[in-house]
């Protein structure tokens, strides 16, 4: 019984939140890694691209809710997601045409593109706040829980409750589908293959007749779709607030770099590594250990490695360790 | 030349002594508030409140056998201790005030107290400084306040929770001076009363996700979660996450968390939770608004406290039959507290007469003044309970 209680407490406060958060980070990191692999720069505007896509989805969700269209138990935001993706695609294509293409034609160094992307970040940041405002926006609807803590306790008779929010389950399901689609696209389709070829060796790809502008366009389209999906899932599960997406940039970059920049598989692994370390390092293990330890040996203190204030510091530290000892990341990406 | 100087100085001294003697019937009260600075929108009404009490006393003609009360305003700036000290210095040395109604913000109040009021031996009553640090400041019995110390809320919280039969709580606070100060004073009071605080953890405002914070709070456990945060900020995020993960069912909310937004965000999900915020059901408030009669905004924060501060100084002078700080400082606690006839706003003339006739008054005033400990307001709190998704008044304490 005690072992079950420990397991449930652990799932409730560590495993489930970390899996959901990891999926959101993985989707974000995939976008960063694709840009890095194909366009060859670190896109600092990624967090705000997510915010923009999510914002369109929020606005469309509100409109759908006001005319009474819904998905029953599922959040209406899922219906609005394609609109968000389209809006975000339009934004990134316009940005690419107006900003990045100029520097691409100049053959600007990656570091210049990084600074340019910071400028883009500030503009997108302002745009989102200008349209929807800087405050929290609530757009979640549908059933809130797959299983709530109280029901779980009644069902199993355990002391610990287990809550699975429907948005957490949804996050994982949607993330799996998105990743499967992406890998299928990259590995099986002609465009996907040309993208990988362009990423591996630009000159060789050009010689074999791949149109670089086309590859760039497809990359942006995929990145916009991934970013919007990540943004909407994060907003549904937590809350939509423009500034929060800006803050997400750090864990997302940490995930991409830990996994190996340019490696899609690495981005997913990195997302989960970062999410799990953030949650486990700041979790107070008192309760779990209390169940597992033999009678009389229960810990008195909180058994917390780091206060939760230092959550963001965890991604920093992991980032530093990886850069020091394995600069190419876990999955042999490109060195930063 | 030297002789001339001495002579001039001597005659000047004599002249000023004569001047003081001739005007023994004038009482000057310094009103030192931040007329410029971060709370400049509040201070005009506060000063008006204090001056209303002075006018009431002057008009009655009963203070110290017909003394008139005049107000001298000075700017505390609220934030600049040096400027506030200089302004207070001027009030005492050049305007020769007999008491100070002020200052407003805790920082400048402490500076004026230690640099000017104590060295010169002048009584000061602050209507709005709430820092717990002022309770223990060196004041030679000269400093009082009609606003409660933030430490007081911690004690009130402890009393409420103990009465509910709760002796083990987890505490989370918003990471700023307000949250930290309140959490610390609560923890101190709660542990002194025999309760146990399992964890006292900060949370940052404006984050999207508080599951890690709630995970730590849940691991520490407790019968109730005390959320010393803001309802529009991280406080609500913590509560939401705690309910979702089943970590806590009931909460205790200090003043920053109580508002319409709380009902709106959580409805009946937090039924059974408790809380408190400053508030009183004393008839003094209504009477105060009545005598203000729209002359200024009587509901603006700390104006009733300002009225009470000025009234207390004047009543204490009457009780001591002297306008000298050293004499009347002993009488302030006495006129403010029971026993005696209860005095509400607008009844200052009655109070002066009672004191003159040798009777006792218990000044209630606009804010139900009750001075405790080192001469600060006990504060009045409205204890609330959440029932059926609504904030309901349990009682006033």
UniProtKB/TrEMBL annotation, chain A:
Domain of life of the native organism: Bacteria
Gene3D superfamilies registered for this protein in UniProt: ABC transporter involved in vitamin B12 uptake, BtuC
Pfam short name (any one): BPD_transp_2
Transmembrane segments: 14-39, 51-71, 77-99, 111-132, 168-186, 215-236, 305-325
Keywords (A to Z) from UniProt: Amino-acid transport, Cell inner membrane, Cell membrane, Membrane, Transmembrane, Transmembrane helix, Transport
InterPro entries: ABC_BtuC-like, ABC_transp_permease, BCAA_transport_permease
UniProt subcellular location: Cell membrane
Gene Ontology molecular function, alphabetical: L-isoleucine transmembrane transporter activity; L-leucine transmembrane transporter activity; L-phenylalanine transmembrane transporter activity; L-valine transmembrane transporter activity
Membrane topology: Multi-pass membrane protein
Residues in coiled coil: none
Gene Ontology biological-process annotations: D-alanine transmembrane transport; L-alanine transport; L-isoleucine import across plasma membrane
GO CC field: plasma membrane
PANTHER family linked: BRANCHED-CHAIN AMINO ACID TRANSPORT SYSTEM PERMEASE PROTEIN LIVH, HIGH-AFFINITY BRANCHED-CHAIN AMINO ACID TRANSPORT SYSTEM PERMEASE PROTEIN LIVH
Family: Belongs to the binding-protein-dependent transport system permease family. LivHM subfamily.
Protein name, UniProt field: Amino acid/amide ABC transporter membrane protein 1, HAAT family
Automatic annotation (TrEMBL), chain B:
Annotated InterPro entries: BCAA_transport (IPR051010), Leu-bd (IPR028081), Peripla_BP_I (IPR028082)
Keyword field: Amino-acid transport, Signal, Transport
Gene Ontology biological process terms, A to Z: amino acid transport
Similarity remark: Belongs to the leucine-binding protein family.
Signal peptide span: 1-20
Leucine-binding protein domain location: 26-329
Protein name: Amino acid/amide ABC transporter substrate-binding protein, HAAT family
PANTHER family according to UniProt: LEUCINE-SPECIFIC-BINDING PROTEIN, PERIPLASMIC BINDING PROTEIN OF ABC TRANSPORTER FOR NATURAL AMINO ACIDS
Highest taxon in the source lineage: Bacteria
Alphabetical list of Pfam families matching this protein: Peripla_BP_6 (PF13458)
SUPFAM superfamilies xref list: Periplasmic binding protein-like I
Transmembrane annotation, as ranges: none
């Amino acid at each position: 019984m005690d072992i079950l209680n420990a397991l449930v407490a652990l799932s409730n406060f560590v495993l489930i939140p970390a899996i959901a958060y990891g999926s959101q980070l993985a989707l974000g990191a995939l976008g960063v890694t694709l840009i890095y692999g194909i366009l060859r720069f670190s896109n600092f505007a990624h967090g705000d691209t997510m915010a923009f896509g999510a914002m369109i989805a929020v606005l469309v969700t509100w409109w759908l809710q006001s005319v009474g269209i819904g998905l029953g138990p599922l959040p209406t935001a899922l219906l609005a997601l394609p609109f968000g993706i389209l809006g975000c695609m339009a934004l990134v294509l316009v940005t690419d045409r107006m900003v990045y293409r100029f520097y691409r034609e100049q053959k600007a160094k990656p570091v210049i593109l990084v600074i340019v992307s910071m400028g883009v970040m500030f503009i997108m940041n302002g745009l989102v706040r200008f349209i929807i405002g800087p405050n929290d926006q609530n757009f979640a609807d549908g059933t809130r829980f797959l299983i709530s803590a109280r029901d779980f306790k009644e069902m199993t008779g355990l002391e610990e409750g287990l809550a699975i929010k429907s948005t957490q389950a949804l996050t994982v399901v949607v993330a799996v589908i998105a990743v499967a689609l992406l890998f299928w696209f990259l590995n099986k389709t002609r465009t996907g293959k040309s993208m990988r070829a362009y990423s591996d060796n630009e000159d060789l790809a050009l010689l074999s007749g791949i149109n670089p502008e086309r590859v760039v366009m497809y990359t942006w389209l995929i990145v916009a779709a991934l970013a919007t999906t990540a943004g909407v899932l994060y907003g549904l599960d937590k809350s939509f607030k423009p500034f929060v997406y800006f803050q997400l940039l750090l864990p997302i970059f940490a995930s991409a770099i830990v996994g190996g920049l340019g490696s899609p598989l690495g981005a997913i692994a990195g997302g989960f590594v970062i999410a799990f370390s953030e949650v486990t390092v700041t979790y107070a293990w008192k309760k779990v250990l209390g169940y597992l330890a033999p009678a009389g040996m229960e810990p008195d203190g909180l058994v917390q490695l780091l206060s939760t204030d230092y959550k963001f510091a965890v991604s920093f530290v992991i980032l530093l360790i990886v850069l020091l000892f394995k600069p190419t990341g876990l999955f042999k990406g490109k060195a930063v | 030349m030297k002789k001339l100087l001495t002579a001039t100085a001597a005659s000047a001294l004599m002249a000023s002594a004569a001047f003081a003697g001739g005007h023994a019937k004038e009482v000057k009260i310094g009103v030192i508030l931040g007329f410029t600075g971060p709370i400049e929108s509040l201070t005009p009404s506060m000063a008006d409140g204090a001056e209303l009490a002075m006018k009431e006393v002057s008009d009655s003609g009963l203070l110290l056998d017909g003394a008139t009360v005049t107000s001298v305003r000075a700017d505390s700036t609220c934030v600049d201790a040096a400027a506030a000290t200089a302004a207070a210095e001027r009030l005492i040395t050049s305007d020769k005030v007999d008491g100070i109604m002020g200052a407003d913000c805790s920082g400048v109040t402490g500076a004026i107290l230690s640099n000017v009021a104590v060295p010169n031996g002048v009584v000061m009553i602050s209507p709005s400084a709430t820092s717990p640090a002022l309770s223990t400041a060196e004041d030679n019995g000269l400093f009082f306040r009609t606003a409660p110390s933030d430490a007081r809320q911690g004690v009130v919280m402890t009393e409420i929770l103990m009465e509910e039969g709760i002796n083990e709580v987890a505490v989370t606070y918003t990471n700023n001076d307000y949250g930290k100060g309140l959490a610390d004073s609560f923890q101190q009071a709660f542990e002194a009363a025999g309760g146990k605080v399992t964890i006292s953890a900060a949370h940052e405002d404006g984050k999207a996700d508080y599951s890690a914070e709630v995970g730590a709070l849940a691991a520490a456990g407790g019968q109730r979660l005390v959320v010393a945060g803001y309802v529009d900020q991280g406080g609500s995020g913590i509560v939401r996450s705690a309910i979702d993960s089943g970590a806590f069912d009931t909460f205790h909310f200090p003043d920053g968390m109580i508002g319409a937004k709380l009902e709106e965000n959580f409805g009946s999900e937090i039924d059974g939770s408790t809380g408190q915020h400053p508030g009183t059901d004393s008839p003094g408030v209504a009477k105060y608004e009545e005598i203000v009669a729209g002359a200024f905004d009587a509901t603006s924060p700390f104006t009733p406290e300002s009225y009470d501060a000025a009234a207390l100084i004047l009543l204490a002078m009457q009780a001591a039959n002297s306008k000298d700080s050293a004499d009347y400082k002993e009488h302030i606690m006495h006129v403010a507290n029971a026993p005696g006839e209860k005095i509400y706003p607008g009844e200052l003339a009655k109070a002066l007469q009672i004191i003159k006739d040798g009777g006792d008054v218990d000044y209630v005033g606009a804010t139900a003044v009750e001075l405790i400990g080192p001469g600060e307001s006990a504060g009045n709190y409205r204890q609330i309970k959440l029932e059926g998704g609504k904030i309901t008044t349990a009682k006033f304490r």
